[in-house]
Amino acid sequence: MTDIAATPLLKATKLSKVYRIGRSLLPSRRQQVHAVNEVSLEVMPGETLGIVGESGCGKSSLGRCLMRLQDITSGQLEFDGRDITHLSPRRIRPLRREMQMVFQDPAASLNARRRVGDLLAEPYRIHGIGSGSDIDDRVSELLRRVGLRPEHALRFPHEFSGGQKQRIGIARALALNPRLLVADEPVSALDVSIQAQIINLLADLREELGLTYIFVAHDLAVVRQISNRVAVMYLGAIVEIGDADDVFSRPRHPYTRVLRDAMPRPSLYPPRRARTGIAGDLPSPFALPSGCPYRTRCAFAQPKCAAERPALTTGADGRGVACHFPLRDEVTADP
Ligand SMILES: Nc1ncnc2c1ncn2[C@@H]1O[C@H](COP(=O)(O)OP(=O)(O)OP(=O)(O)O)[C@@H](O)[C@H]1O
Ligand code: SF4
Ligand SMILES: [Mg+2]
C-alpha cells in the first residue's frame, strides 16, 4: 500500500448540495431535495475511500460535488490544500487533469461513432499535450495499462464486451495522469465474474500509479474489497465512517449493521440473524424526519432520536458515528 502522507488530497467541510425542483420562477416556491447534507470527509493521498448507501442516498451527488462537476450549495472543498469550492469553470479546467471520474455505464460515456484510439487521444488534444506519433504511443500505453492491446485502438466501442468497455473508460480517465479518481458504481453494470477483474485492475493501477480513489457503490462487499476506509451514507449524510474492515465487521451505527446484514453474499459474513433485507422505505428527500434521519426505520429509536439530530462524532480509534445510542462491538463468533 502507498504511504499515507499527512495532508489530505481532498477535504470536504460541511458540504451540502440542494436541488430545487419545480417550474416556479421563484426559487423559494420550488421543492428542495437535500441530496448532500453537511458532509465532512478527508481523503489522504494513496488512500481509497469507499462510499456506500442505498439508492437515492446522495452518493453520486456527493461524487459530482467532490469533482466540482456541479455547483456546491454550501460548505467548503479543498484539493491538495487549495480551496476549490467556488472556482470558475475556466479556473477549474486545469484541475480536471488531476481529478477524473469513472462512470457506471461505460457504453454511455463512450461516443459510439468514434474509434477507441480517437476517444483515448481526445484528452491529449483538448489539453494540447503531444502530437502525432507521440499521442499514438500514449494511447498504446494506456491500452496496455488496462489489459487491452494496441490494435484495439482501431475498433469501435460496440466491438467490446462490458468489462472491456469499462477498461476503456478507465484508460480514458487515466490519460492525463490524474492524482484522484472518483469511480461511481464502476462495476455495478458488469457480471459478477467480471467485477472482480475490474476491481483488481483498479487496485493494481492504484499501486502502480500512486492513485487516490473515491469508490462509490451500493454493494458493501465490493466496496470492502478495495477500500481502506469507508463512509456509509443515509439521506445525504455520513452516518458512519472508519476503517473498512472494522466498519463491516463491527458496525456501530444501526443502519450500517442493517446494510451489512442485507448483503446477498452469506459466505463473506456468517449470518448472525435472519437476512430480511432493509425494512421500510427511505423517507422522502423533500421532507427529512426531525432529529435522526434514520429514526423512522431504526429498531433502537428512543424519544431523544426524534428531538435531536446526532452529530458525527469521531472516537479515539478514528471511527465516526452519528448515533445517540451506538451499537457496542459484536463478538466475532456467535455461540
Ligand atoms: N439533477 C438532479 N435534480 C434534482 N434532484 C436530483 C438530481 N440528481 C439527484 N437528485 C436527487 O438527489 C437525491 C440523491 O440522488 P443521487 O443520484 O445522488 O443518489 P445515489 O445514492 O447516487 O443513488 P443511486 O444509487 O440510485 O445511483 C435523490 O433523491 C435524487 O432524486
Ligand atoms: S440516533 Fe436513534 S434513531 Fe438514529 S440511529 Fe441512533 S438509535 Fe437509531
Ligand atoms: Mg448514483
TrEMBL record:
CDD domains per record: ABC_NikE_OppD_transporters
InterPro entries: AAA+_ATPase (IPR003593), ABC_transp_ATP-bind (IPR050319), ABC_transporter-like_ATP-bd (IPR003439), ABC_transporter-like_CS (IPR017871), Oligopep_ABC_C (IPR013563), P-loop_NTPase (IPR027417)
Keyword ATP-binding attached: yes
Cellular component GO terms, alphabetical: plasma membrane
One term of GO molecular function: ATP binding
Subcellular localization: Cell inner membrane
Keyword ATP-binding: yes
ABC transporter domain mapped to chain residues: 13-260
Membrane topology: Peripheral membrane protein
Entry keywords, A to Z: ATP-binding, Nucleotide-binding, Transport
GO BP annotation list: peptide transport; transmembrane transport
Alphabetical list of Pfam families matching this protein: ABC_tran (PF00005), oligo_HPY (PF08352)
Similarity field: Belongs to the ABC transporter superfamily.
Protein name: ATP-binding cassette domain-containing protein
Organism: Pukyongiella litopenaei
